[in-house]
Design brief:
Blueprint (H helix, E strand, L loop, with lengths): L1 H7 L10 H7 L21 H23 L3 H23 L6 H11 L4 E5 L2 E4 H18 L8 E4 L4 H12 L4 E3 L6 H11 L3 E4 L4 H13 L3 E4 L9 E3 L1 H6 L18 E6 L9 E5 H13 L7 E4 L6 H14 L2 E4 L5 H10 L4 E5 L2 H6 L14 E5 L3 H11 L3 E6 L8 E2 L9 E2 L2 H6 L2 E4 L1 E2 L4 E2 L16 E6 L13 H6 L1 E3 L7 E11 L4 E7 L4 E3 L2 E3 L1 H8 L5 E9 L8 E8 L7 H11 L8 E4 L14 H6 L9 E6 L4 E4 L2 H8 L6
Parallel strand pairs: 1-11, 3-4, 3-5, 4-8, 5-6, 6-7, 10-11, 10-12, 12-13, 13-14, 27-28
Antiparallel strand pairs: 1-2, 8-9, 14-15, 16-23, 17-20, 18-19, 20-22, 21-22, 22-23, 24-25, 26-27, 28-29, 29-30
Main location: membrane
Catalytic activity: a very long-chain fatty acid + ATP + CoA = a very long-chain fatty acyl-CoA + AMP + diphosphate; tetracosanoate + ATP + CoA = tetracosanoyl-CoA + AMP + diphosphate; a long-chain fatty acid + ATP + CoA = a long-chain fatty acyl-CoA + AMP + diphosphate
Pfam families: AMP-binding (PF00501), AMP-binding_C (PF13193)
Length: 667
């Protein structure tokens, strides 16, 4: 390149006389006395000068080459360095005797800055020191009242409140695992979740008392001790706890109370969302707690940040990444009872929030808020979460400024996860050699119809090519273990996959279909069971839902496949909600799906609902919808059928339903 040559010899290609001519004719290189000046030709330059010129030239050329051909190299290097750093930290914590837990990290923070604000909640601030003292009182009250000892499991049935934090810390000081119950569940599901973890003590918030009374007879039969966070309680079988806590001492507790707690000891039970059945209690060890905490470090969060926690603390995102991660980073968290789109940015501005969380549809809810002039006027620089669609991601950045979105892929019980540490919209992560070395995983071919991996003649799974939608599996090793679900050996075994790449090997089956592209970015495609097959083609429900929500009037879409008598596979159906003040546009929706979806992926049935049934973490429930199908005689919601002859959606009548069942209408 000419520029590179000039760096080596500045007097080439400049239009000046050559070196020889300059000496012979004295053109411009004499001093005032007529004697020649010191010329900068190559002959008079030292070897060091030449080396410097060459190195500068190579550096410029290298920067140009790397920037154009390896645009993510800087981000890769930063992430790899951070990953190695947290890896060494965990290794060090494992070797410390006794084991150094997140609780110990919190106690170190208390000693360093006891007066620093830890929690901000509804106008009240709680310092690290105050939270520590309150947790001591909780531990002593439960030790005296319930006789808790190391290893006893305690279930928490609480909403998002500061007491959630110090109750958990108090239990940790006694060496007691905590089961984090979803405060939205009731009756059968509540009893099921409670029974899974084997807890003998249950702590309940007064606002959830009615839900507890529904199952109280069953709990009393099992000899469960139920404590209400109030100063008094007149209900037989429930004891008050707040009065005992207030009277207890706040003196520190002995480390000996948790002397046997180790890196692989159970710290928590966190429940899956239950989108396909009853929730399962994932066993979370202290090692997994540390892994969740490290996500803040991997995303570049420092002790000066303020973290906004508006997700439920019973979920791994709110509890591990948000609250427990704050203990590790030593930061301040702003805690909300529940997510509020209308109050979100006001809270961020009031408390100088720099890091926010999102999950499921929360980012879309923010984008649906009315536009105001001061929305970009905030200090949020990082957003951590998962489940955001590409179009919402782009809209979010356009609306609210240049926020670094750190999209995650992980499962509470899983042994493999990804972080998109770049600005690549739509990706849930990026593959690199360090990550794969410590947490080996692979993508394998998957049969959608049989819902099982495709195997070769030797009985081994087949690796998927780049760009191919495939099942993600993570190899189970001592570094990346899979513990499973409490009280459910059958579901635990279903997640273990043998003979994947070699006979006898063992992998964790994520149950998720992902795609690795040629640039090593990872994209979530769908969950096994959500993807269905129609007309010999695989249909990804998430893709269809994205298209539907761009149709006029449609607010949300939950896509699934339903059985049709006399047909193989499952045909597409969608439950949708309509935007306020609008109606279902039959013609507009038809044009949308025909324009953007192949024939086999177009939803043939639309079900209009007032609201979509969600889990506590905004995941859509599909099991009941699939079971109910599309029979208008059994469904009160309005139903529509995609009529290819009329080129629109038409109301699904009993006559149309019978014609479909009798195969008079071809699908």
């Amino acid at each position: 390149r000419p520029g590179f040559v000039c760096l080596l010899n500045p007097f080439r290609e400049t239009g000046r006389p050559g070196i020889r001519e300059q000496h012979e004719h004295g053109s411009g290189w004499e001093n005032e006395s007529g004697s020649p000046k010191e010329t900068p030709d190559l002959a008079t330059r030292t070897p060091m000068d030449l080396c410097v010129s060459v190195l500068v030239g190579l550096a410029v050329l290298s920067c140009f080459f790397l920037r154009n051909f390896f645009p993510y190299l800087k981000a890769d290097c930063i992430h790899i360095v951070r990953s190695i750093g947290v890896g060494f930290r965990l290794l060090r914590y494992k070797k410390i005797k006794p084991f150094y837990s997140v609780l110990d990290r919190f106690l170190d923070r208390v000693r360093r800055h006891p007066d620093k604000t830890f929690i901000i909640f509804e106008g009240r601030q709680y310092s690290y020191g105050e939270v520590d003292r309150r947790s001591n009182k909780v531990a002593r009250a439960l030790q005296a009242e319930a006789g808790l000892r190391e290893g006893d499991t305690v279930a928490l049935f609480l909403p998002n409140e500061p007491c959630y934090v110090w109750i958990w810390l108090g239990l940790a000081k006694l060496g007691c695992p905590a089961a984090l119950l979803n405060f939205n569940i009731r009756s059968k599901s509540l009893l099921h979740c409670f029974s899974c973890c084997g807890a003998k003590v249950l702590i309940v918030s007064p606002e959830l008392q009615d839900a507890m009374e529904e199952v109280l007879p069953s709990l009393r039969e099992q000899g469960i001790s139920v404590y209400l966070l109030s100063d008094s309680c007149s209900i037989k079988g429930i004891s008050s706890l707040s009065d005992k806590i207030s009277q207890a001492s706040d003196r520190p507790l002995s480390r000996d109370l948790r002397a046997n707690v180790g890196i692989r000891s159970t710290a928590l039970y966190i429940y899956t969302s239950g989108t396909t059945g009853l929730p399962k209690a994932a066993v979370v060890t202290h090692e997994r707690v540390w892994a969740g905490c490290f996500i803040q470090s991997l995303c570049g969060i420092t002790a000066d940040d303020v973290f906004y926690v508006n997700l439920p603390l019973y979920h791994s995102a709110g509890f591990l990444i948000g609250m427990a991660g704050a203990l590790d980073s030593g930061i301040t968290i702003v805690l909300r009872r529940k997510f509020s789109a209308s109050q979100f940015w006001e809270d961020c501005r009031e408390h100088n929030v720099t890091v926010m969380q999102y999950i499921g549809e929360t980012m879309r809810y923010l984008c649906n808020t009315p536009k105001v002039k001061d929305h970009p006027n905030h200090k949020v620089r990082i957003a951590i979460g998962n489940g955001v669609r590409s179009d919402i991601w782009s809209e979010f950045l356009n609306r609210f400024g240049n926020i670094h979105v750190r999209e995650l892929y992980a499962a509470t019980e899983g042994n493999i996860g990804f972080i998109n540490y770049t600005s690549k919209i739509g990706a849930v992560g990026r593959a690199n050699f360090v990550h794969r070395f410590f947490f080996p995983y692979t993508f394998i071919k998957f049969d959608i119809d049989k819902e099982e991996p495709i195997r070769n003649s030797e009985g081994l799974c087949i690796k998927a090519a780049k760009g191919e939608t495939a099942l993600l599996v993570g190899r189970i090793t001592w570094r990346s273990p899979f513990i499973g679900y409490a009280g459910d050996k059958q579901q635990t075994e279903k997640k273990r996959l043998q003979d994947v790449l070699r006979k006898g090997d063992l992998y964790f089956n994520s149950g998720d279909l992902l795609r690795l592209d040629s640039d090593n970015f990872v994209y979530f495609q769908d969950r096994v069971g959500d993807t269905f097959r129609w007309k010999g083609e695989n249909v990804a429900t998430s893709e269809v839902a994205d298209i539907l929500t761009m149709a006029p009037g449609i607010l949300e879409a939950n896509v699934y496949g339903v059985k049709v008598e006399g047909h193989e596979g499952r045909i597409g159906m969608a439950a949708v909600t309509i935007k306020e003040g609008e109606h279902f546009d039959c013609s507009g929706t038809y044009k949308q799906v025909v324009s953007y979806l192949p024939a086999y992926a177009r939803p043939r049935f639309i079900r209009i609902q007032a609201c979509l049934e969600m889990t506590g973490t905004f995941k859509m429930k599909k099991v009941r919808l699939v079971e109910e199908g599309f029979n208008p005689a059994h469904i009160r919601d309005r139903l529509y059928f995609l009529d290819t002859e009329k080129k629109t959606y038409v109301p699904l009548t009993d006559e149309i339903y019978r014609a479909i069942a009798s195969l008079e209408i071809k699908l």
